[in-house]
Amino acid sequence: MIILFDLDGTLIDSTDAIVDTFHYACDMHGFSRVKDKEVTSLIGYPLDIMFKGVGVSDDKIWDFVATYKDEYRKISTKKTTLLPHAKEAILSASKFATLGIVTTKTGRYSEILMHHFDLMQYFDVLIGREHVEYPKPHAQPILKAIEKLDTQGKEIWMIGDTKLDLICAKEAGVNSIGVLSGYGEKDTLKNFTDIIFNDTLQAVNYLKSRKK
To answer: Are 200 and 181 in contact, with CB atoms under 8 Å apart?
Structure first.
């Protein structure tokens, strides 16, 4: 079995880091501060889409993204935590499946975070924003991940907290599980998968039961 995990809202809580850095970028470029809820509603999308979503003009977006990335690099490990039961889920899953991470977050920063939590060694592949041309919900991130793994005769599952993860899974032709630990609402997630759990550990326990 192969299990691919999203990061934000699935394994980690980086809400404070993302929101604070988003505001920092807006402030640095003299852009009117947006509400926290506007930012969190866009988490999961690429940064350029997030800034566009709050009204930043196309010609300024990549300046905002650059400022964001520079600041995020400085604060990410200080303002990010593992979600409850996430470590237990990873350790459990690693005993019966090959694991990967598929995220819209910058892969380099994602790897730093997972090393910070001493968990990177459990993952055989990590696909971040810079590794693909087309991010979620396009199929490319998952397809890129499974290209790097031995998939022969193995079920492939994607676990994520937003519709972007679930649509990506569907487009890539793999199974999906929604979790309610992050930014997606249950009513939205159930439009894209029949399997929804409260958190990633419950999802992993379900997949473990399928191995028996």
So the answer is: yes
Given this chain, do its domains 2-13+80-210 and 15-75 carry the same CATH topology? no
Q: Which residue type does 192 have? A: F
pTM for the structure as a whole: 0.91
The domain limits of the chain are 2-13+80-210, 15-75
The C-alpha atoms of residue 23 and residue 98 are separated, in whole angstroms, by: 37
Architecture of domain 2-13+80-210: 3-Layer(aba) Sandwich (3.40)
For residue 199, is it left (φ>0), alpha (ψ between -120 and 50) or beta?
beta
Query: Which stretches of 12-132 are DSSP H helices?
Result: 15-28, 36-40, 47-53, 61-75, 86-93, 107-116
- Domain 15-75 sits in which CATH superfamily? Putative phosphatase; domain 2 (1.10.150.240)
Q: Alpha carbon of 98 to those of 26, 92, 106, 156, 190: distances in Å?
A: 40, 11, 22, 9, 26
Closest to 171 measured CA to CA, from 134, 130, 125? 134
- What averages of pLDDT result for each successive group of 10 residues across the chain (212 residues)? 96 94 94 90 90 94 95 91 97 97 94 96 97 96 96 94 97 97 94 97 96 69
86 to each of 13, 47, 69, 168, 208, how far by Cα in Å? 10, 25, 25, 22, 15
Confidence (pLDDT) at 33? 78
For residue 209, count CB atoms less than 10 angstroms from its CB and return exposed for 0-12, middle for 13-18, buried for 19 or more: exposed
Distance CA 161, CA 8 (A): 8
